[in-house]
Amino acid sequence: MAETTTELEEHLKKFFGFDQFRGLQKQVITSLLNKEDVFVIMPTGGGKSLCYQLPALMQEGTAIVVSPLIALMKNQVDAIRGISDHDGVAHVLNSSLNKGEIQQVKDDIANGVTKLLYVAPESLTKDEYADFLKEHKISFLAVDEAHCISEWGHDFRPEYRNLRKIIDRIDEGIPIIGLTATATPKVREDILKNLHIQDATSYQASFNRPNLYYEVRPKTGQVDSDITRFIKGNEGKSGIVYCLSRKRVEELAQVLQVNGIKAVPYHAGLDAKTRVKHQDMFLMEDVDVVVATIAFGMGIDKPDVRFVIHHDIPKSIESYYQETGRAGRDGGEGHCLAYYSYKDIEKLEKFMSGKPIAEQEIGHALLQEMVGYAETSMSRRQFILHYFGEEFDPATGDGGDMDDNMRNPKPQKEAVDDVKKLINVIEASGERYKSKDIVNIMMGKTNAMISSHKLDQQDFFGSGKDKEPTYWTALIRQVLVARYIKKDIESYGTLQLLDAGKDFVKTGKTFMMTEDHAYHLDDASPKVQGGATDNRLVKMLKDLRKKVGAQKNVPPYVVFQDPSLDDMATKYPITMEEMANIHGVGEGKARKYGAKFLELINQYVEDNDITRPDDLIIKSTGSKSGNKLYFITSIDRKLSFDDIASAKGMEMNDLINELESIVYSGTKLNVGYWVEEMLDEDQQEELHEYFLESETDGIDEAMEEFDGDYEEEEIRLYRLKFISEVAN
Ligand code: ADP
Ligand code: MG
Questions:
Q1: By CB distance 3.0 to 4.6 Å, which of 23, 109, 178, 328 could disulfide with 146?
Q2: Model pLDDT for residues 364-407, shown as the tens digit of each residue
């Protein structure tokens, strides 16, 4: 069909009311009208639907659109019906239709009224439908969210794998258009192969979103406060916070709410009505923030989302890209902040452990890329774009300085010799090993595989011992991005040389590298913007604690515990109210010991010109307060601990945890009656002496001191009594 330029624009105007095509839309549509197979990669919001809707409306026959989600199909059908005078113009064919409705769909197709037929892939496999469609004119087949075909994609759907067979049954000659927002080179290859459209005309819009700012922060125990503070610093702006679990979603939404942020939760465990309500509240700006699992976002088209926070690291870079892609769609500000801790990676790995091995291998490889992203100190934008097979130079590219690493660069080091060493080792070992194995070989660290392959007998074994393993991991990633080596995907990531790498060994003169961030070294939690612990202040607070303890004749830890001092040195409380909000400090304790500490902090803040975060009072939800009252009254009534625990469905261990947090924040609990039940007089005396004289109230130390004389629970129980009586 030969449409002139203006004719296409006229159709666009007539059907959709738009004046101009966006990006690559026009080229895509022209190809499809020319009966070519087409493959389209365009970011979310780029306007993919129009690429098949318009040609479908313009042509004779019915276009079949395969899409993974019924909700998405329904939205599109409604939209298309809205621009036509005949409802039959678009239909969804799925299992929820009754006989009469199915007949209606068939009649409309037979009469040439239906231009777009949306189907889920599993419906298409039904003989009844396939046979029917075979008899009628099909203009083309569109596969939306085509990455679902690939198990290397982030939402693999096995049913997508049967599409080719079905197409052949219906009419093997019809043009096919595949569309997706995210596809790594591997996923893209899977799609083309699986649909048998290797010769398709491909259109790929750049993945670069220059207006998005990428940042990773270490995830500490303070993550809720940090997020609260971030959002308060962005008051009135729309944002999404993603959490992995429903429980976390609920908790965090509450924390935000009690801190005066207009936030609602969203996850698949809420009933449909609530979900729709919360989504609408967000779209209508009745709330600023949605705290959600990844169930939220598909089909959300809010142009002015200003931040997307990941409380938990996602399971692949594709997911991360897709989720952060919801920020700044209008081209304005879009802050993408992820919290990262290696512990979360281990958690995700555990989730995968029940799955088939091949799936685990894939999941693991995707996760390692995510670790790479989090820990890298190179341009995050370059890292992401490299992942999607796109070259990017942060020095000249759009948005090159829009991430934390580029704003605060780590010093670079000359590593030309190490790069050559590394490439040589990869080559000499036969280009058969993954990153982790190569690092082990460099370090001279043996394991079953290494010794069975006799790698430990090679002269290059251990040739990189002078460096840390993390150094080699980082270098490998940077050499990958420089395209001197590549990761072979079929073999789940073995490292292989590229020509540029071979040349580099011969002629390379310089390679500047930056070492990775060390987020998972416990001792060195890196500086959090506006939230780092001030070690000098900690030291002063500890001195004061010792003095106060001595005056009151109690061990220092009875005054305040270490985490409380750390928190003070992070938040710089200067009023009694702020003090009572410090971790582990309740009102009682603030009143009893707080004054001197406030005085010191005040002086310190003044002397050192410290700007305190003005919104530092982060309230906790008090979600435990209901229980707290129950515990206090039950203990007043001298109920047995077993009964209290079982009344709340708790283990004894958890009950003691709760009681500890009550006692340590300054509330007195008269647990003596229960201690009497559990310990005899001599034992009590012995423990009392111990705690009075000990430097620490640590349980491990006490267990060691008594070397098995007491159960851990008994020691903790006594400690409750001790802290209650001596400190409170
Ligand atoms: P994608 O599927 O790529 O994520 P959609 O097809 O849902 O994106 O389109 C996103 C939005 O862009 C829709 O609201 C759509 O109406 C709009 N849109 C698409 N093409 C154009 C155009 N040429 N001019 C104006 N708006 C457009
Ligand atoms: Mg779409």
A1: 178
A2: 889 889 999 998 989 999 999 999 989 999 999 999 999 999 99
Sheet holding 289-292, edge to edge: 212-218, 334-340, 305-310, 238-242, 289-292, 263-266
47 CB less than 6 Å from ligand 1? yes
H or E element that contains 586: none
The preferred substitution site among 8, 9, 21, 22 for testing ligand 1, maximizing ligand atoms within 8 Å of CB, is: 22
Whether 23 lines ligand 1, by a CB cut-off of 6 Å, is no
Pair of tokens at residue 119? 């189907």
- Quickly tell me which residue has 């839309």 as its tokens: 25
**Is 302's C-beta closer than 6 angstroms to any atom of ligand 1?**
no
Confidence of residue 416 (pLDDT cuts 50, 70, 90): very high
- Orientation angle between helical segments 699-706 and 681-693, nearest 10 degrees: 120
Q: Hey, what long-range contacts does 576-581 have (CB within 8 A, 24 or more apart)?
A: 577/617, 578/616, 578/617, 581/617, 581/618, 581/619, 581/620
DSSP class of residue 248 equals: H
Task: Kindly state the DSSP code that residue 725 receives in the 8-state scheme.
Answer: I
Q: Which of 9, 16, 180 to mutate to test the pocket of ligand 1 (most atoms within 8 A of CB)?
A: 16
Q: How far is the CA of 65 from the centre of ligand 2 (A)?
A: 11
**CA-wise closest residue to 518 among 570, 469, 481, 562:** 469
Cα 234 from chain centroid (whole Å)? 20
Handedness of CA 446, 452, 457, 463 (dihedral sign): negative
Tokens of 355: 């799955």
Confidence of residue 530 (pLDDT cuts 50, 70, 90): very low
- Token look-up 């072979």 returns 488
What is the distance in A from the centroid of ligand 2 to the CA of 144? 7
Q: Which residues pair with 180 in a beta bridge?
A: 41
Q: What distance in angstroms lies between residue 28's CA and the mean position of ligand 1's atoms?
A: 14
Residues across the chain: 728
Which amino acid residue places its CA nearest to atom 9 of ligand 1?
47
Q: Distance between CA 256 and CA 493 in Å, rounded?
A: 41
Which atom of ligand 1 lies closest to the CA of 46?
A: 3
Q: Is 24 in the pocket of ligand 1 (CB under 6 A)?
A: no
**pLDDT at residue 111 above 90?**
yes
Counting Cα atoms < 13 Å in the Cβ hemisphere of 397 gives 23
Lowest-pLDDT choice from 150-159, 613-622, 634-643, 653-662: 613-622
Using pLDDT thresholds of 50, 70 and 90, give the confidence band for residue 528: very low
Q: By alpha-carbon position, which residue is closest to atom 17 of ligand 1?
A: 47
Longest Cα–Cα distance of the chain, Å, equals 99
Query: What's the CA gap between 130 and 165, in Å, rounded?
Result: 11
Q: Name the closest ligand to CA 29.
A: 1
Give dist(CA 290, CA 296) in Å, integer.
9
Contact call for residues 400 and 214 (beta carbons, < 8 A) = no
Question: Ligand 1 within 6 A of 46 CB?
Answer: yes
Please tell me the residue having the least CA distance from ligand 1 atom 13: 47
Minimum-distance ligand 1 atom for the alpha carbon of 299: 7
Among the atoms of ligand 1, which is closest to the Cα of residue 12?
23
CA 413: distance to chain centroid?
31
- As a whole number of Å, the end-to-end CA separation of the chain is 86
**The model's pTM:** 0.67
Task: Report the nearest atom of ligand 1 relative to the CA of 21.
Answer: 23
Task: Find, among 290, 282, 298, the residue nearest to 240 by Cα.
Answer: 290
What structural domains does the chain harbor?
5-204 (3.40.50.300), 212-390 (3.40.50.300), 412-514 (1.10.10.10), 535-607 (1.10.150.80), 622-727 (1.10.10.1390)
Instruction: Return the SS3 of 146.
Output: helix
Q: How many CB atoms are closer than 10 A to CB 486?
A: 17
Is 301 touching ligand 1 by the criterion CB < 6 Å? Answer: yes
